[in-house]
Amino acid sequence: MASELRIEGLRAGYGGVQVLYDVDMHVRAGETVALLGTNGNGKSTVIKCVTGQLVPTAGRITAVIDGTEHDLVGLRAEEVVGLGIALVPEGRRLFPKLTVEENLHLGAFREAARPKLQQGLEFCFEVFPRLAERRKQLAGSMSGGEQQMLAIARALMTQPKMLIVDEPSVGLAPILVSKTIETIGELKKRLGLTVLMAEQNFQQAVRIADRGYVLVHGKIEMHAENAEELRNNQMVRKLYLGID
Amino acid sequence: MYVTWDLMANAIVAGILLGGFYAAVAVGVTIAFGMLDIVNIAHPAVMMIGAFLAYLALNTFGIDPMITMVILAGVGLAIGPFLYRGYHALIEKRGDESLQGLAFFFGILFIVEIGLVMTFGVDYRALELSYLSKTFELGAVSIPARMLIPFVVAMIMCGLCYAYLFYTFTGRTILAVAQDVEAVRLIGADPQRSKSVAFSIAIATGLVAGVLLILIQPVEPSIGREFIGRAFAVCVLGGIASITGTVTAAMILGVAETLTASLIGPSWSPAISFGLLLLTLAFRPSGIFGR
Ligand SMILES: Nc1ncnc2c1ncn2[C@@H]1O[C@H](COP(=O)(O)OP(=O)(O)OP(=O)(O)O)[C@@H](O)[C@H]1O
Ligand SMILES: [Mg+2]
Predict the structure, then answer these.
(1) Which fold is adopted by the domain A32-51+76-240?
(2) Which end of chain A is more exposed for a tag (fewer CB within 10 A), N or C?
(3) What percentage of chain B carries pLDDT values higher than 90?
(4) What is the nearest CA distance from A14 to chain B, expressed in angstroms?
(5) Average pLDDT over residues B53-75
(6) Which residues of B fall within a CB distance of 8 Å from A82?
(7) CB B14: neighbour CB atoms within 10 A?
């Protein structure tokens, strides 16, 4: 069923330093929305507010999960995950001294995911055969690409309705970036997810994005209703493609 | 001195049995210190409370220590969350955990000891039970019941801890919380609850280990201190956060001590624990089973 996310007038910052200025965003059911912006413009800050890791100073964040509306402001991170909103965080945040399999098992902690543990594992191993090969390996000893796969897989183990991914391309070789983005696009289709993805890599992100927002210095400077519009926009051309 | 195979075999079996008891003492330290970074040097005080409650239960109410230990395990699990909440509010929440935590638990150790001295005096107390003085002969090796029973209980207890940590959802979050608290939230679990459960398990194992101690030997209130060093040595030797490592290291320590006692002399055995600890830290800082 339909799951969507709405952010209205969001302001947030760190210890008195304001980072976000009245951010408005909308991720409709079944969409993949890209949140674009270069380093330090506030993408992760938006995501932290949505996922309960940072309390906004103003604004509303609401999610509709399976037809029920939830106010996300004030919820703790674990409560947001409990609703069915999974996060693949910046820096992946795996448990380095646990094995691939143990990391995946942990992903299935939430009540709704527990009975589907086995199914979830099979699904993850099918999507990422590399993880099946490495199931007994410690997460911390895997390559960057493998760790990114595991981070995505662990998020899927929570049986989410909505997937939020913070810069999946960071630290990956170009070929892996392209593969990771494709995988996210594929997963979205297969699982019927609603996806919000923060990315700096514009060229890759627009390949799977239905729509996009560009964040500059904590403000949404533009949003595009489709990938074509995003590609052709003047500011995007200037910021990302170096074309004036 | 004349060393026979019988003497050696007896020393090794006695060492393994003793090691089992050490594992019971150390498993709580492995969970609290190894997994939660809580330097609970008051763990022996918890043991002494368990030991004296077993004494009281038998001599006042006629309750067998085997029943007492099951009750105490339940009590430990039930009051553990409150103790953890207290520790969290006073120490953990403020950061600076190690040093202030150390002082905090040292204080608790003293208070408990003084409390026990005022209640029970400084005399040694033992449990008078006929089944404890039985001995089983296995060829030339004799196995005293007062060592065998604690060994069996210890192995069951460590097995339960292992199964809980590796095969239940909350148990697994305890392994995870030691590595990344925020990431635990991202899988939908409350890290405070994981820590609280783990701390409670540590308390419960401490109480049971105390009952085991008074089965093995007479106790007086400050005797628990003898085990602080050993428990932390076993924990480090075993690889900080590993239950299987803890059990193995405890056996190694037990055997090393009994062999030293029968080959060189009993007064040398404590030196062995710390010798092993230093060697481990020098050559394999992550412990035998460290990941
Ligand atoms: N924990 C923090 N404490 C203080 N300031 C922070 C913190 N995290 C981020 N900031 C600041 O907030 C601003 C936005 O950071 P944010 O991490 O949201 O950017 P980003 O768009 O995700 O960048 P990147 O692409 O590098 O991940 C930056 O100026 C950053 O320095
Ligand atoms: Mg970021």
Answers:
(1) Rossmann fold (3.40.50)
(2) C
(3) 63
(4) 17
(5) 96
(6) 188
(7) 22
- For chain B, how far is it from start to end, CA to CA, in angstroms? 42
| Residue among B56, B14, B75, B29 at smallest CA distance from B227 | B29
Averaged pLDDT score across all residues of chain B: 90
**Chain B touched by A158 (CB under 8 Å):** yes
Q: pLDDT of B143-176, one tens digit each?
A: 999 999 999 999 999 999 999 999 999 999 999 9
Closest partner residue to B179 (CB to CB) among A81, A95, A110 is A95
Confidence check: pLDDT of A81 > 80? yes
* Tokens (6 digits) for A244: 């004036």
Domain limits of chain A? 32-51+76-240
CA angle A68, A70, A71 (to 5 degrees): 160
Domains, in order of start, for chain B: 5-283 (1.10.3470)
pLDDT tens column, B238-269: 877 789 999 999 999 999 999 888 888 888 87
Per the CB < 8 A criterion, the answer to whether A166 and A47 are in contact is yes
Q: Which residue of B has its CA nearest to A82?
A: B188
Q: How many CA atoms lie within 13 A of B282 on its CB side?
A: 6
